[in-house]
Amino acid sequence: MSTLSVCIIAKNESEVIGRCLACVMNFADEIIVVDTGSSDNTKYIASTYTDKVYDFPWDDDFSAARNFSFSKATMDYIMWIDCDDVIDDENQKKIIKFKEMLPGTADTYMADYYISPELTTTVIRIVKRGTSRWIGFVHEYLETSPNKIRVDFMVTHMKTVNSSIRDNGRNLRIFERKEAKRVKLESRDVLYYSKELYWNGRYADAIKKIREYFCMDGKWLEDEIQISIIEGSCFGKLGDSSAKIDVLSSAIIKYGMNNRLLYDCGLELYYNSRYSEAAMYFSAILSGFGFDSAYFSDKFEFVFNSLIFESCCLWYLGKKDAGKRLHEKAKSIHPDNEAILSNEKFFS
Question: Is 24 helix (H, G, I), strand (E, B) or coil?
Answer without folding.
Answer: helix
